[in-house]
Amino acid sequence: MDFNSLMREAQKIQEEMQRKDAELKNKEYTSTKSKSIVEVTMNGDYELISVKINDDFAKNFTSDDREILEDALMLAINEVTNKVTEDKEGLVGDLAGSLNIPGLGL
Questions:
Q1: 40: helix, coil or strand?
Q2: Which residues neighbour 37 within 8 Å (Cβ) at sequence distance 6 or greater?
Q3: Cβ neighbour number for residue 21 with a 10 Å cutoff
Q4: Please, where are the H alpha helices in 3-106?
Q5: Which residues pair with 28 in a beta bridge?
Q6: What is the pLDDT of residues 76-93, one digit of tens each?
Q7: Torsion from C-alpha of 94, 49, 80, 71, nearest 10 degrees
Q8: Domains in the chain, start-ordered, CATH in brackets?
Q9: Other residues' Cβ atoms within 10 Å of the Cβ of residue 26
Q10: Residue 35 DSSP SS3
């Protein structure tokens, strides 16, 4: 593969990565935790879109309920963030694997 072909291939992959990144930014990821007490939705740009608390759970809050809710929120937000990260890392790995550069072992 000559240098110009390599550069064209790299440009093509860069454009594909940008397109896929834009798709992921518009994708929504949702996680529900602790017997559906809380549901968190985030987009592929790590922006928290919504947090929903189960009405039956929230109507008679005690201090213990509040602690359970805070823990559930933290778990749900971390999980949905991990989903976005895994998706992005998988995309980058797939695109990098499509490079056929002799000697690099990709």
A1: strand
A2: 53, 54, 57, 68, 69, 72
A3: 14
A4: 3-26, 55-58, 63-97
A5: 43
A6: 888 888 888 888 888 877
A7: 170
A8: 3-97 (3.30.1310.10)
A9: 9
A10: coil
Sign of CA dihedral 35, 37, 43, 48: negative
Pairing assessment for the beta strands 38-43 and 28-33 based on DSSP bridges? antiparallel
- Residue 17 token pair: 């990565």
Separation of alpha carbons 31 and 37, rounded Å: 11
pTM for the whole thing? 0.58
**Considering the chain, what percentage of its residues have pLDDT values greater than 90?**
9
Structure token digits, residue 37: 């007490």
How remote is the C-alpha of 10 from its chain's centroid? 25
Q: Do the Cβ atoms of 44 and 27 come closer than 8 Å? A: yes
